[in-house]
Amino acid sequence: MYSYEELVGIIAELRSDHGCPWDKAQTHESMISCLRNECEEVVEAIEQKDPENLCEELGDVLLQVLLHAQIAKEEGLFTMDDVINGLCEKMVRRHPHVFGDAKAATPEESLELWNEIKR
């Protein structure tokens, strides 16, 4: 079974000098339709209650995220580690009822707290 680190390495290799011509040619802008399509395929798998396809389509969305992060790394903008760190910080910050002292006993209270923090 492959690891996350191996996956990141595969994506970097695809974009390397000796990688795949299609992958190397991609930009954030050129991949917009791919990202939209893959997200829609996730929605369809959920609506069809197809867990096998959902697993595959989530992988395709993750591929899009990793490719965008690799392009950004190459451009000196940010890395996948930055994406992960930012997401972790946001989840901890927006869930003080889990990681802090705030209280939220229902999904509605949790959402209200999330929206309040977001504002």
Write the layout of secondary structure elements.
Elements: H1 4-14, H2 21-25, H3 32-47, H4 51-74, H5 80-93, H6 96-99, H7 107-118
Structure description:
The protein has 7 helices and no strands. By secondary structure, the chain is an all-alpha fold. Helix 3 packs antiparallel against helix 4. The chain is globular. The relative contact order is 0.08.
Radius of gyration: 18 Å
Could you tell me the strand content as a percent range? under 5%
Give the overall form: globular
Helical stretch count?
7
User: What does the main sheet amount to?
Assistant: none
Question: How would you state the average pLDDT, rounded?
Answer: 96
What oligomeric arrangement do these chains adopt?
Answer: single chain
What gap, in angstroms, lies between the N and C termini?
Answer: 42 Å
Which class best fits the helix and strand makeup?
A: mainly alpha
Elements, N to C (H/E): HHHHHHH
Helix content: over 70%
**Care to count the β-strands?**
0
The stretches of 5 or more residues where confidence is low (pLDDT under 50) are none
In short:
72% of the residues lie in helices and 0% in strands. The chain contains seven helices and no strands.
Which key features would you list for this structure?
mainly alpha; 119 residues; globular; 7 helices; 72% helix
